[in-house]
Amino acid sequence: MRSLLFAVLAAVPLAGFAQSAPYAGKTVTIIVGYKAGGGYDATARLLARHLPKHIPGKPTVIVQNMPGANSMIAANHVYNVAKPDGLTIGTFNRNLPVAQLTKVQGVKYDMTKFAWIGSAASECTILALRSDLPYNSVEDLKKAKQPIVIGATGPGANTYDFPLLLKEFLGLNLKIVTGYQSSADIMLAIERKEVDGRAGSFTSIRPFIDRNLVRPMLRARADEPGVEKLPIDEDLAPNPRAKAIMALRSAPEIVGRPYVMHPNTPPELVKIMREAFASAIDDKDLIAEATKAKMDLNYVGADVAVKVMKEMLSQPKDVVDEFSKYVKFGE
Amino acid sequence: MHKNASLALSLLIMIVSGYGVVAATAWPWKAALFPLVIGVPLFALAAAEALWTLFGAEPASEEARDFQLSIGTDTVHRTLVAAGWIFAFFAAIVLIGFPIAVPLFVFLYLKLQGREGWGISIAITLGTWAVFYGLFDLLLHLPFPAGWLLSWSGFSS
Amino acid sequence: MLEALLEGLVLVLQWKALAFMLLGILLGFWVGLLPGLGGATTLALMLPFVYTMQPVEAFAFLLGMHSVTATTGDITSVLFGVPGEAASAATVLDGYAMAKKGEAGRALGAALASSLVGALVGAVALAAAIPIVRPLVLTFGSPELFMLSLVGLAFISALSSPGGRGMLRGFLAAALGLFLATIGQDPQAGVARYALGTLYLWQGLDLVPVLVGLFAIPEIIDLVVRGTSIAGAVPAGKISHGAFEGVKDTFRHFWLTIRCSLIGTFIGILPGMGGAVAQWMAYGHATHSARTAEERKGFGRGDVRGVLGPGAANNSKEGGALIPTIAFGVPGSTSMAILLGGFFLLGLVPGPDMLSKHLPVTFSMVWTIVIANVITVIACFALLNKLAQLTTVRGALLIPVILVLVFIGSYTSNNHYGDLVVTLLFGAVGYFMVLAGWPRAPLVLGLVIGKIAENNLYISIARYEGAWLTRPVVLVLIAITLAVIVYPLFQARRRAAARA
Question: What pTM, to 2 d.p., does this model score?
Fold first, then answer.
């Protein structure tokens, strides 16, 4: 009898502890939709190193790579196969909502239904041109006599979609040359003056701005420290329709590094993860590492992410139709 | 044997490139150009090879500068056995997952095909499994899904 | 210049940097050996440890690891016919054939000694090229890259089989490779070509599962059929020495080794060509440098020159690949992209400054490659004859272990069962190609080069329209391509005439 009482007494605080730290002794897996070595992977690995101390119970956090189909394979896995136990987190291509919007074959997820943790960064797309060219403003670009040659990887990548919309809607005199294997190859083409400029995420172009190879000209809506002074494409749009299409293209960039869990994950676990991400991204050790590696992380909350997804996916059909004429799902 | 293999390969390539060319015609020209530019000559080259095999004389010296298969007694039978083991391993991985398939395959191969003793079979199985588990699972965190059989029967949790 | 060269050496020779380099070498050794571990993945995994290191230590660690990976990848290729890295598949052809003949030690000796020569030549070429590096890289625009890929294809296709029939099969295999390279989402219209309704094929065929299937599966089947050890018919005593013979071979064919090293460096310098191309180009050159059909006969059957060429290119390309990364901040491969992350950690912005103001740091990297290779090769030599003994182990003991490595190696490229299916399919294709007497090399090079060729052709046309055909370097490369194709035919005709 007494031992039973002891057992009960001992169990009470334990149960209470288990309640407050459901992650104690567990392993959390972050599934990255790309191979090791890219930006999404680097961000996930950085977070995996610093997350544990911000999650009550200090679980182990590991990273697994599940590449393929521009991370659609990984998204389908987290949505359909992974268990809703809060132990599997997915981080995918920010353009996945575009695949859902344009009804790409193979989409087996609904971006609005994921249990959103948030985004670890916003990624602003900019257009940058060689510094030795005489263009200083958007007006100069419109009036350019020679077409300005823009190097790009291919449809679906911001290197292509962003300048394409600029050309179509703002009337910039651009000639887009696609087929470069990576943004690094475009950079080299800029060096040898094969092309005049490129679009891409500010983070990836910044080192080349710093050494004055290229000059930033124009940016998309998503905010990021360092781009404040550039004109925004949407503000220059000639009509509401053009503005809507541009906004639709750039919306995913606000949620630049999305982190989600299975739709049926218990809300208390989702809450723990959101708080953990928010405080991990403010962690000064993490910031020190990120700064060294030239990565800019800033937490974008789940509410913002869900709002962006819902807005994107509730566009009227005619807007979607026109949008899919220009923008395809990729990278 | 050489002739048949060559013929089979050429026919296979003709079918694949034929399908490829037909499928490509449905795409925008920029996507279709390269598959067409390569697919059509590929079909022609394969057809030439097939005709040459059927009607041409094959001089003995015309061999690729590449690996040569050994010909011994019982070659066909043993080749089928080898292919069978390879395929069985693949099937085991899909059905019961890497973590079980790896030691099972190693052990069964050593015991049944190699007719090795218990001691050495168990030692090699354990060694292989230890490297597999330690390196790829513990250290690299590769996602090894549970096999289909296990997921269906609900054992994978 | 000389001062910077010495300063760079001093940087590397600090004891901590050296210690980290040794650690990197030890890791890289295993990464290269195991087909399941790729250099890029491991670099990404190791990056966190770099945060706590000093700049030069970090580079010694990462580069030491990276350059050794390329060297030891050849060991698996020679011993088991399983390419340890995507970039070491060319060594399988003659290296494994030598192992079958009981010359594994000699093949390994040749592979490592030529690697060392390659690393040295690469480093010297790099140092010598630093003043002209920018113009050199900038001369090779998209049109030149397109033509260069054609030259490579012509080399391999025209020479991988003898005679007119052989040439037909060479081009057939190359065309098949090019065709298979079109699988996946295309960069012009965004169409998922030949994806067969799967998501797996969106990104195209991955090189590793294809290579592993194409090369390892036929070799494994053959080993089962023979029912012996790899060097079955050879008396055991003969195998335990021979590594030194391989070193001598390297000096017997010294100029070939040097030339292949230069090819490797050159391909390495060109961003976008990739490591796998360098080895095959060198292999093509090695066959081509054998003038007569008689001399060429041994290739694919265990000619040591077929090991020396790829071995030399394998390491010299690493020195070359550093160039675009350093001089322009533009990485030539995934591994280099990860190394670039290392630059940022150093607080260095890669760019022209690296060739002037920070020249000692650049040279310290060159030195790292050289020293890491010297250490590896010397350390390996103690092991080589022991490793060669593996070819005398009963096949039944080796086969299951090799098969596990093959399947895991292929699976790690995408962590998807599709990788295994690709390996099996290409295993079957490879087996039938070998059975039918078709060469596999052109297929691989076609597959590797297909995307490069298509993309650069589109860029050339979109950017320059017809005018790209008149660029001087392009014209030279066109002439070389034609010569490579026509010369063997001409030779065959002359031989036939002489016989008549």
Answer: 0.87
